[in-house]
């Protein structure tokens, strides 16, 4: 398969994932989370239910736009970074790669936030996804730094700080803050790297 074919296939996968996420958000806004089924989400996106489950493990994930945290994918992303690179820079690149389209599309981001805030049943799924990502990244960062995560808090604090910085930047945007998400993430990681003097 050529690079062009691979690129086309990846773009098609991103478009399908985004269509499913948008369909899920629209349906939940229209009818409420409990009334929406995975079959309805798939039908609204123009795909089969089986296709939906190729992208999202359940209805909650489709609404959140969250794909399961894949340890192999995150390991590959970290391994692709130079070994000598400061760990926060590596994390910045990984986090940016994993940011969903909802982060960069202001309308979709606002819709996702409305849905999450109005549907309390989504809270546990969101928290669970965040914990899984944090735990995987903590193990990988500990390996990269040559530290035992049971003995040193540094890997977990590093990862938690990086993820919290991204969440803070997204919330900054939601509340009318200046700049783009990309700009504020750059600023936040500079603060993490150089300290809060």
TrEMBL record:
Protein biosynthesis among keywords: no
Q: Identify the domain of life.
A: Bacteria
User: A single Pfam family, by name?
Assistant: TetR_N
Q: Which residue numbers delimit the HTH tetR-type domain?
A: 14-74
Q: Which Gene3D superfamilies match?
A: Homeodomain-like, Tetracycline Repressor, domain 2
Output the InterPro entries linked to this UniProt entry: DNA-bd_HTH_TetR-type_CS, Homeodomain-like_sf, HTH-type_TetR-like_transc_reg, HTH_TetR, MftR_C
| Keyword Lipoprotein listed | no
Instruction: Indicate the segments annotated as coiled coil, or none if absent.
Output: none
Q: Which residues bind DNA?
A: 37-56
Tell me the keywords, alphabetical order.
Answer: DNA-binding, Transcription, Transcription regulation
Its protein name is: TetR family transcriptional regulator
Task: State the species of origin.
Answer: Intrasporangium calvum
